[in-house]
Write a structure and sequence with these properties.
Blueprint: E1 2-7, E2 13-18, H1 26-36, H2 43-62, H3 67-72, H4 79-89, H5 93-102, H6 124-145, H7 152-167, H8 189-199, H9 211-227, H10 231-235, E3 242-243, E4 250-253, E5 275-278, H11 281-294, H12 322-333, H13 345-369
Antiparallel strand pairs: 1-2, 3-4, 4-5
Helix pairs in contact: 2-6, 6-7, 9-11, 9-13
């Protein structure tokens, strides 16, 4: 089973699960169409829900169960079933894939070892999300399966099953958006500074030989470090939303969801409202150089307004994808072994940590002055 993305002519993206024969998975597509999309969830949120369901379908296959058919016969999950599903959902999929890679063979979800106790489990936060998706989906298909006999007693049984599934989720902290206390990146500032130094276009340690690529990559990490924007927001920056003249140089992070001008199926987007962020004069000067000297001469780059583009290969001139950005990160990480634990989103966390510390210092100074 695979997750597929398509783009309609109006720019809207649609994501769905396909079976082994490439046909859309009927029930998950029905759930997506009637429940998820109308609730105004973003495409990536819907994709996360569907990815979570893939693990449930593996459980059904391994145990030779068809939950929809069982619900149609009004046979619902008991606590033993729910506990088994929870245990299955807690498995670390990435670890299983890594094991298969070491063995030099492609893993099939249906061939997962029967003895699962030795396999590492996922975090409580991920398990919470998986169980939330599964609870919503199973409640939905249970109602669909019993739609012709939609009596009050049946609805009460389904609602009780839904509550039991939700109750199986790990408990959350006071902040409902997180589980437990945020621990931060755990990376020393010196390491991030060193990573930034290697990414500079004039660094002797920079692994890229092309001058245009060096400049583009320098700007990618310079903006992440200076502004605290998300990687998706970085890749969604547009030429018409950067302001490089005047006293205040800035970039504007805008919502570009379902933009028909963006050819990327997995579209990087902003998660928050539009905002303007000031940038340093040196960063503005480098952006001007990139736009007028580098991007301008790349064939195909003038067909869309997105700032950062791919420079080589079949995707040359197209907006830089998340995969393309990930490859840049990977090449930079290869320059030093200690960079193996650096990931793009750390820059945002680090930016917020620095900002919070500055605010605390201001408060201390204000209190002392008072």
């Amino acid at each position: 089973m695979k997750l597929r993305r398509i783009k309609f002519t109006n720019g809207e993206r649609y994501v769905f699960l396909t079976c082994d024969d490439s046909a859309p998975h009927f029930l998950s597509t029905l759930w997506n169409t009637t429940e998820l999309r109308p609730s105004n969830l973003q495409i990536n949120s819907i994709a996360n829900h569907l990815q979570n369901l893939k693990w449930l379908f593996v459980w059904e296959a391994r145990n030779q169960r068809n939950l929809y058919a069982e619900f149609h016969r009004k046979k619902y999950l008991n606590m033993n079933d729910i506990e088994k599903i929870k245990k299955h959902l807690s498995l670390d999929i990435n670890h299983l894939k890594a094991l298969a890679k070491v063995k030099k063979k492609v893993i099939s979800f249906s061939s997962i070892p029967q003895v699962v106790d030795a396999i590492p489990t996922i975090s409580a936060n991920v398990l919470y999300n998986r169980l939330s998706s599964v609870a919503k989906y199973l409640t939905f298909i249970a109602k669909v399966a019993t739609a012709q006999s939609n009596d009050e007693e049946t609805m009460q049984v389904i609602e009780r099953m839904s509550k039991q599934l939700k109750a199986a989720r790990p408990k959350r902290g006071k902040n409902k958006k997180t589980i437990g206390k945020r621990t931060g990146t755990g990376l020393p500032k010196a390491m991030l500074d060193e990573f930034i130094a290697v990414s500079r276009y004039d660094s002797e340690q920079n692994p890229f030989s092309n001058a245009g690529l060096r400049l583009r990559n320098d700007l990618l990490f310079r903006l992440l470090n200076e502004t605290g924007i998300r990687p998706g927001e970085l890749l969604s920056l547009r030429n018409d939303r950067i302001h490089l003249v005047g006293d205040v140089k800035s970039i504007t992070v805008a919502r570009t969801h379902d933009d028909p001008q963006d050819p990327r199926l997995k579209q990087p987007v902003s998660k928050t409202l539009e905002r303007m962020i000031a940038i340093k004069p040196q960063t503005a000067a480098l952006l001007h150089r990139y736009v007028t000297k580098v991007r301008k001469i790349i064939q195909g780059a003038n067909k869309h307004p997105y700032l950062f583009v791919s420079h080589k290969g079949k995707t040359a001139g197209k907006p830089l994808s998340q995969e393309g950005f990930g490859q840049v990160v990977l090449e930079l990480k290869k320059t030093k072994p200690e960079f193996a634990i650096v990931f793009p989103y750390y820059f945002r966390h680090h930016f917020n940590d620095v900002l919070s510390e500055k605010n605390r210092q201001k408060q201390r100074v204000s209190q002392c002055g008072g």
